[in-house]
Amino acid sequence: MKILSLLILLVLAGCLAVPAISFFYESGGGAACSRCHEMGHQYEQWLSSSHRNIPCTSCHGEALSGSFRFHLTNVLRVRDHLLGNVPEPLRLRTADFLEMQARCAGCHRQEFAQWSAGPHSVSYERLFLNAEHNRKEPPVDDCLRCHGMHFEGGIRDLLEPASARGPWRLRQEELAGQPAIPCTTCHSMHRPGRLLARWQTGSPPAARFQEPVRPSVGLFDRRSRQAVPVSLLPLPRMQDRNRPVAISPDPRQALCYQCHAPLSAGQVRSGDDRTPTGVHEGLSCFSCHDKHRQTTRASCATCHPRLSNCNRPVETMDTTFADPGSRNNIHFVKCQDCHPQGVPTPKKKES
Q1: Residue 331 near residue 274 (C-beta atoms within 8 A)
Q2: Is residue 102 domain-shared with residue 61, that is, in the same domain?
């Protein structure tokens, strides 16, 4: 009985030690995390980021709110640290990103609601168990470049069979309803940047001094497991056959092009490209698309008066804005598409 009692006491002590250690580190704020030398780089990034006033535990979990897996992970990290088996550099896992997703919603409620209502909140199940798509394009590792950037492993670790023959199933069934493109796909929480200040009394700063894009915006590259800031992402050189196509200099588009990209020749309308040509050439993606929901209802009204040069309401013209089945894609429509005999002289608008 004494041995059994001793074993029970040791187990209880071990169980209590885990949250006790968590409480100890939480009491020291972010500085406590840097006591482990391998966390120094992440701590320094956090210190200069726009989230520097947010405790580490708000995003990464705390002693009371963490799950069993959270505490088990901490125990294993302590073990690896003591044994000198810490990998360099440290990486978050798929489950870690998915847990942080819910915590993003705690502060960014409006943005999270918009993202949830848009196409980028698509789940692993809807993407990878789409039988019609899988038969046309067999799943390959490169699918994960955009549809599963945080997934650890290749397509054969996610889906079977990895071929054009079904039926298909997810090897990790718990991912079925999880988002394949979470917030951290396009936002880096530790990216250096100023706090977002509210304009005080008086006029806002001149437009050219206003921030064009938040410093957190960037692409999470699954190969390097690093977030690449949008300032380092290039805009492609696009062509319509042999003619160079004008592209908006909006830096946010560089992020869109990482997935909505043309084939290697840079031809518009190839691959998943949507670069505007025709009457909309030179417009930014964000001239028409909401940044989180991707809704386009207000796209025409953003630039156009109600009537066009033809003296017709622009929203009723034969384009995909009015009807998805239209032969005139709103991204590429030209005046000549509707006026093959020649573009008429603009009519005088009625006053």
Answers
A1: yes
A2: no
